[in-house]
Design brief:
about 500 residues; Rossmann fold; five-stranded mixed sheet; five-stranded antiparallel sheet; 14 helices; about 25% helix
């Protein structure tokens, strides 16, 4: 049956006494996790629709999500440290029946019906009769909120069938199973979390959940990985870039997956000899990843990044021009995705965004990603940038991502990001934020190196040296936390 809970039920039955959740000081077997899921589900009203999840990362959170799915409901996750206004907007738009949370966060969620897991569920006795599960692949499984071009987040609604499709695609490439341990390091509101939780548990592999303080420190996180024998790690390229500078990574790790942003060769050049390393691509709208590329034995492109590979099992990726026609190999076009991962689209009043989901005459749905790329001679795909990342400088078009790519290739640069701002007249200019690889980095040398490949108008006006790049909750560079170099009263 193509539902998440049905596949969890089968995995639990086959691995009843095997570990499902690993935490410091606690191991929960599949049988114990299934029992907790039943207890939580039994505490719900007879009919549920949309249920918010605002909890700390622990076994109870995973059980709560599975309980929602057992009852045929749709979960809407939010991190407890999200701004109150953002959580309220998400939960209000999703029209949640109630929010599953903990007493510590109740005040932050005032105005919504709450069920506190630490006082209502954990002490509930096992139900005398197990609640009847709902097995409908077309039911929504979750809503994840992504950044919207309108200035407010938009909720992507994903079906059970979409997630089960991705679990199969993941299994076909990476072969997880009993004995494997996946690190649960992502925030719950990003689709890497979906990969971590469901691709592991539904395949009989365990999930290792570090405490929040260990997720924030690389050495502590790697100690947790070593302690619990983690074999699979999925995250943003910036995490892999940090690991790349370690003398060695935990020997248990067999698989490192990068997703959510471009993967540069310099991020993983020392990791390739220690584990399998994959670059992946896929918008939340198409359920986690739409393509995989194995970096071991692979080739870095001229801009220093890895290709994004080939479509995953049950997925097709077309490259189309502005008129919707296929472009020849090697020509740039929009990456458009079809197959089992294409989701239901956006909830709420996002009709303009939902136009990106095109229903074809044969009934299939094609998602227009807004990402540009091209097909390489060997059939692999290369990602370039978003369609909307262009700015104008002196009347000339500039791709900020291209400038950033060139900056990464300069000697002495460990990390870098380029941000576009506007001055008081509304004209664009660029600032480069650079983390040096060592002492003695000079702006004159950077400008000289950039000028070998970029015209003068594409070289950032300002350079800021940073000890590190600030990251947001999703693990991407947080542009809003970068200091702004004002240019004649620059408008932020």
């Amino acid at each position: 049956m193509d539902t998440i809970y049905a596949q969890f039920q089968a995995a639990a039955a086959a691995n009843w006494d095997a570990p499902a959740i690993l935490e410091d000081g606690r191991t929960m077997t599949f049988g114990e996790l299934a029992g907790l899921v039943d207890r939580i589900a039994a505490s719900f009203p007879e009919t549920v629709s949309n249920i918010g999840i605002v909890m700390r990362h622990r076994a109870e959170m995973i059980a709560a999500i599975l309980a929602v799915l057992q009852c045929g409901g749709c979960y809407i996750p939010a991190e407890p440290d999200f701004p109150s206004g953002r959580i309220h907007d998400m939960m209000a738009e999703a029209d949640v029946d109630f929010i599953l949370t903990e007493q510590a966060f109740a005040e932050k969620l005032a105005g919504f019906p709450l069920r506190c897991t630490d006082c209502e569920i954990c002490g509930v006795e096992a139900p005398s009769q197990k609640r009847e599960a709902v097995f409908d692949p077309e039911r929504p499984a979750y809503v994840l909120y992504t950044s919207g071009t309108t200035g407010r987040p938009k909720g992507v609604c994903v079906k059970n069938r979409n997630v089960c499709h991705y679990v199969r695609a993941f299994a076909a490439e990476f072969h997880p199973g009993p004995g494997d341990v996946m690190l649960q390091n992502s925030v719950c509101s990003f689709d890497i979390f979906v990969e971590e939780v469901f691709a592991s548990l539904l395949s009989g592999a365990a999930l290792a959940i570090p405490p929040a303080e260990e997720r924030a420190d690389l050495s502590s996180l790697m100690a947790f990985v070593e302690r619990h024998g983690v074999t699979m790690l999925s995250g943003f390229p910036y995490l892999l870039a940090e690991m790349n500078h370690l003398p060695e990574i935990p020997s248990s790790l067999r698989l490192l997956i990068s997703g959510g942003d471009v993967l540069r060769g310099v991020y993983v050049d020392h990791l390739l000899a220690q584990a399998e390393v994959y670059n992946t691509y896929g918008p939340s709208e198409t359920t986690v990843c739409a393509s995989y590329y194995r970096c071991n034995g692979g080739t870095v492109l001229d801009d220093g990044t890895y290709p994004i590979g080939r479509p995953v099992l049950g997925t097709q990726i077309e490259i189309l021009d502005a008129a919707g026609r296929a472009v020849p190999d090697g020509r740039t076009g929009e990456l458009c995705i079809l197959g089992g991962g294409v989701s239901m689209g956006y909830i709420g009043g996002h009709e303009s965004e939902n136009a990106a989901f095109e229903t074809l005459p044969d009934g299939r749905v094609r998602y227009h990603s807004g990402d540009l790329g091209y097909r390489l001679p060997d059939g692999n795909l290369a990602f370039l940038h978003r369609k909307d990342t262009q700015i104008m400088i002196y009347g000339k078009r500039v791709e900020v991502s291209e400038v950033e790519s060139r900056l990464y290739r300069c000697a002495g640069v460990r990390q870098a990001v380029v941000r576009a701002c506007r001055d008081e007249a509304g004209l664009s200019y660029m600032t480069a934020y650079v983390v040096p690889a060592g002492a003695g980095l000079k702006v004159s040398a950077l400008r000289r190196a950039l000028s070998e490949n970029l015209p003068a108008f594409m070289i950032p006006e300002f350079f800021v040296e940073m000890d590190h790049l600030p990251l947001n909750a999703n693990g991407k560079p947080d542009l809003q936390k970068l200091p702004v170099v004002l240019k004649e009263g620059a408008r932020l």
